UniProtKB/TrEMBL annotation, chains A, B:
Any GO molecular function: lyase activity
Source species taxonomy: Bacteria, Bacillati, Actinomycetota, Actinomycetes, Catenulisporales
Pfam family, one: D-Glu_cyclase
Stretches that traverse the bilayer: none
E.C. numbers: 4.2.1.-
UniProt KW Lyase keyword: yes
UniProtKB keywords: Lyase
Protein name, UniProt field: Putative hydro-lyase G3I18_12550
Species, as recorded: Actinospica acidiphila
Length: 270, 270
């Protein structure tokens, strides 16, 4: 597996076009995508057999803060409206393969696992609103510290859909008090990429016992006055896969997202 | 049928609670809902057999400006998360019944048509953002004139989903030039109820030949400098039903919406 702390994008990978990023990942590069192809929107991926697609689509509709849908493919399709030339089987840096809710592989390419009945769901990513937070002067501690954003499985249950249920997963960013209003407003203007925070302040309100032990991503240091701010996270469908055990699913590996062709600012409602 | 110009809500019906409005409609009152239970969000309805539910859900996902989903029920359910005590078979003022894409009835109650395999889709309504337009000082010509908002079938095709395809339907509001920015901003802040306009200015860009002959609702007079402003409309699924001919569907009658318990302002992202 690949859970060691990571070095985020450097000047070279930040300047990549989305097409270049996808080409590098297709060649096997397996780096985290935070900061890669800066300015272009990334997406979470979950692919399930057609027999489970209605439940997944309904699960996303019923949990729009965690699972804002940017695209849903036709069964078997390996392309997406989010990019002109992408192949969803090869163009992410790393995938997770799930059988009966168990993680069985983390390859950099899923051609060997692909099935013609797979429906792929591309879900908005909070990296997209980080552009707006940074533009408003909100410091991004995980970026300053060269780490992936920390994510936590909460005790908040999603609204279930058919056979799919599971907890909400959240990402956490430490925000100085004087920037809290900016962070809420700027992310709130981007509902297609999770929108406003679901909670600010007390991790225990979400059933998170220890901020230093995220379930996905890396731990991040809070400055003395920082408030932990929690946003619903596109890893939530992975938690539903783990809880609900469909016979088969593919997802991105947390922090290793699909890089699309749309600009971050296209997801701002104003 | 029921296409004559209508008198909109009076002081009594404006002051109704959503629960009272639903109770009156359940008793058979068949008035348009514009202005009824002022301040509470209304919704479009389309119900299709479970066999068609995936296509409808995907159609809505792929056309989010026209079909922003507020709730999708489990098959056969007559209740919705949008109201605590509602019965979707009786609580709208008037329905349309569709067989093979043909309108076969417009009853005030669909208990006689109900099927246990029906999945109901409740879709955001532009009446909800009219609250914000009015608060920003944008005049609402159709309300001033006591008419239902005019709606037009455009030549813009929706993104298809399985067996469902069809044109985008739009609602039109005349807006004075000095209020155009307000109208765009205020509706843009409410993406769950259609969001910003899809077009301002030239009706022919949408394939609309004659503003005085709407396909649904009533014609509305423009003041001399008014700009016609077009928003994607929740009647779009009805146009898809007419174009794609599922064996059976129920919808609301245009302008006779479901009145839910949520306040209009809950759909504003800020």
């Amino acid at each position: 597996m690949d859970d060691r702390p990571v070095v985020l994008a450097d000047d070279t990978t930040r300047a990549w076009s989305p097409r270049t990023a996808r080409a590098r990942f297709r060649e096997g590069l397996a780096i985290p995508t935070a900061g890669v192809a800066a300015g272009y929107a990334q997406a979470n991926l979950v692919s399930v057999p057609a027999d489970w697609a209605y439940d997944m689509l309904l699960f996303c509709q019923r949990n729009p803060r965690a699972c804002p849908l940017l695209d849903v493919t036709d069964a078997g399709s390996t392309s997406t409206v989010l990019a002109s030339d992408a192949d969803l089987r090869t163009d992410l840096p790393r995938y997770r393969v799930w059988e009966g809710g168990e993680l069985v592989d983390e390859p950099t390419d899923v051609r060997a696992y692909w099935r013609d009945d797979l429906v792929s769901f591309l879900i908005g990513c909070s990296f997209t609103f980080e552009w707006a937070l940074a533009a408003a002067g909100v410091p991004l501690r995980h970026v300053e510290q060269g780490r992936n954003v920390p994510m936590y499985r909460t005790t908040w249950q999603c609204r279930s859909a058919g056979r799919l249920s599971g907890p909400m997963v959240v990402s956490m960013r430490p925000v100085p008090p004087e920037h809290l209003d900016d962070a809420i407003r700027e992310s709130g203007l981007m509902p297609a990429v999770h929108g406003a925070p679901v909670h600010c302040g007390d991790p225990s309100a979400l059933g998170v016992d220890d901020l230093d032990r995220p379930d996905f991503g890396d731990r991040v240091e809070l400055a003395p006055d920082d408030i932990p701010v929690f946003w619903a996270c596109g890893v939530t469908p992975q938690a539903a896969v783990m809880a609900s055990r469909p016979p088969f699913a593919l997802t991105h590996a947390p922090g290793r997202m699909f890089v699309g062709d749309a600009r971050d600012e296209q997801f701002r409602v104003l």
